[in-house]
Write a structure and sequence with these properties.
Blueprint lengths: L9 H115 L1
Length: 125
């Protein structure tokens, strides 16, 4: 402790020393309270750290799941595109098939008309 100037009386010295002792004891009490708080919360902080680590693992797993979903969506998109191509091909085949059926129906009608006309022609002779 620093020495007080010589012109300070004894009563003032005693008061200053009492204040310093009080401040010193308050610092000791504060330090002890900090040690107590550290000990109390040490387990809490360890548990919190474990929870944070677990959450990091879970988010990493979710990130992998999301990547897997993205890849699966790409596969589904490719399948849909393939189906669209097949449908377009089927439409073309069906339209050709419909034309063939239509021509076939028209040929049948023409044959019926020819037969009808032949019968009429022969009947008129």
């Amino acid at each position: 402790m620093k020495k007080l100037p010589k012109n300070v009386d004894e009563q003032t010295k005693d008061r200053v020393e009492a204040i310093f002792e009080d401040v010193n004891s308050n610092f000791k009490a504060f330090g002890e309270a900090l040690d107590l708080m550290r000990d109390v919360f040490k387990g809490e902080f360890l548990e919190l750290g474990k929870k944070v680590d677990k959450n990091i693992e879970l988010t990493d797993g979710l990130r992998l799941d999301v990547c897997g979903v993205g890849i699966r969506l790409d596969e589904i998109n490719a399948e849909i595109q393939s189906m669209k191509n097949e449908i377009a091909e089927l439409k073309m085949v069906l339209s050709k098939r419909a034309d063939v059926d239509k021509v076939s129906n028209l040929e049948k009608r023409i044959l019926k008309m020819e037969n009808f006309l032949r019968v009429k022609f022969e009947a008129s002779k």
